[in-house]
């Protein structure tokens, strides 16, 4: 019963689970090549990145370390507030390390731009971004992902880690949320 309840709020499936897995496999192969012998730190941005990061790392065949940050910028709405609040920082010194931020979506770009600048100030050897979804129409700052699985239109999407008011993260695909759900 559970998922059927949630699926009633989905207008349309934008990206299927199989398409996400295939994209993660391809990206994992690319990251294996790009980070061979570098032992990068993959930094997942909580909470949305967890399903994508879990899928992605299964397909990487080189040494990597994992860490997580919890950064708040949405505060329960449908649009980023622009205020970035680091709630949980990573646990290690990144001086001279290769960093790959793993994100579920790049929308306004404000969060990642701030994080990239922060990690450059912390003397990371390199700072790159991998994202499941890129929504270029949402940008308010100049930033691009180094690795993008899917570019999507300016729709309100949920599932596979993406939420609306902390719900829908557990849907196994990317779906467009019905407008009546978030305009009530």
UniProtKB/TrEMBL annotation:
GO molecular function: guanine phosphoribosyltransferase activity; hypoxanthine phosphoribosyltransferase activity; magnesium ion binding; nucleotide binding
EC number(s) from the headed UniProt entry: 2.4.2.8
Pfam families referenced in this protein's UniProt entry, alphabetically: Pribosyltran
GO cellular component: a single term: cytosol
Listed pathway(s): Purine metabolism; GMP biosynthesis via salvage pathway; GMP from guanine: step 1/1; Purine metabolism; IMP biosynthesis via salvage pathway; IMP from hypoxanthine: step 1/1
Keywords carried by this UniProt record: Cytoplasm, Glycosyltransferase, Magnesium, Metal-binding, Nucleotide-binding, Purine salvage, Transferase
Single GO biological process annotation from the record: guanine salvage
Enzyme class: transferase
Major subcellular location class: cytoplasm
InterPro entries, A to Z: HGPRT, Hxn_phspho_trans, PRTase-like, PRTase_dom
Sequence ranges assigned to domain Phosphoribosyltransferase in this UniProt record: 17-164
Protein localization: Cytoplasm
Reactions that this protein is recorded to catalyse: IMP + diphosphate = hypoxanthine + 5-phospho-alpha-D-ribose 1-diphosphate; GMP + diphosphate = guanine + 5-phospho-alpha-D-ribose 1-diphosphate
Cofactor(s) needed for function: Mg(2+)
Signal peptide: none
Annotated NCBIfam families: HGPRTase
PANTHER family to which the protein is assigned, alphabetical: HYPOXANTHINE PHOSPHORIBOSYLTRANSFERASE, HYPOXANTHINE-GUANINE PHOSPHORIBOSYLTRANSFERASE
Annotated family: Belongs to the purine/pyrimidine phosphoribosyltransferase family.
UniProt-recorded name of the protein: Hypoxanthine phosphoribosyltransferase
